[in-house]
Specification:
- The protein is 91% helix and 0% strand.
- By secondary structure, the protein is mainly α.
- The protein has a domain at 5-88.
Length: 173
């Protein structure tokens, strides 16, 4: 199918916009990677899924708009759109996204503090009687602790004596 020059220019601009959109989608992946750290194999899997998704969209666009005819200027338009996006506003988009994410993190932390405030107060109220009871239980356990310590010493002394006796028996044999 033969396209007029204006149709070709329009087609080129659409492919350039698709390239810029693909660049924006890749920046979303980059922002998510920076926000949520994860292993390298997941990064590679994300890249694979990204390129499969972009390729399918590009194939659908070429099939729909140009009846499946692949033109060189369409592929050049996609890469030119991506390059233009990365050269112009990619850095600004990433910085803005990081600021927005930090803002929402602060809001989430404040909401969690408000949500858990009653539990903190309850914990502080119950902490005083719990400490009192803990001290009482430990005071009750101290004589038992002393008994266990003395028993342990006695066992060590007896074990040493048995070793000495065994050594003497071995010498006599």
């Amino acid at each position: 199918m033969i396209l007029s020059m204006s149709d070709q220019a329009c087609y080129f601009l659409w492919t350039a916009l698709m390239g810029a959109g693909a660049g924006l989608a890749y920046d979303v992946f980059r922002i998510l990677r920076k926000t949520f750290k994860h292993p390298d194999f997941l990064t590679q899997l994300e890249d694979l899924l990204y390129w499969v998704f972009v390729s399918v969209l590009l194939f659908y666009f070429i099939l729909h708009k140009n009846h499946g005819e692949v033109r060189v200027y369409a592929i050049v338009g996609v890469f030119a759109g991506m390059a233009l996006y990365f050269a112009s506003i990619s850095r600004l988009v990433r910085k803005a996204a990081i600021v927005v994410i930090a803002f929402f993190e602060k809001i989430l932390l404040i909401a969690l503090r408000i949500l858990f405030y009653p539990f903190r107060v309850l914990f502080q109220l119950l902490n005083v009687p719990a400490r009192f009871l803990t001290e009482r239980v430990l005071n009750l356990a101290r004589p038992g602790k002393k008994f266990l310590r003395n028993t342990g010493r006695a066992i060590k002394v007896r074990a040493r004596k048995m070793k000495r006796d065994l050594f003497v028996i071995q010498k006599k044999i």
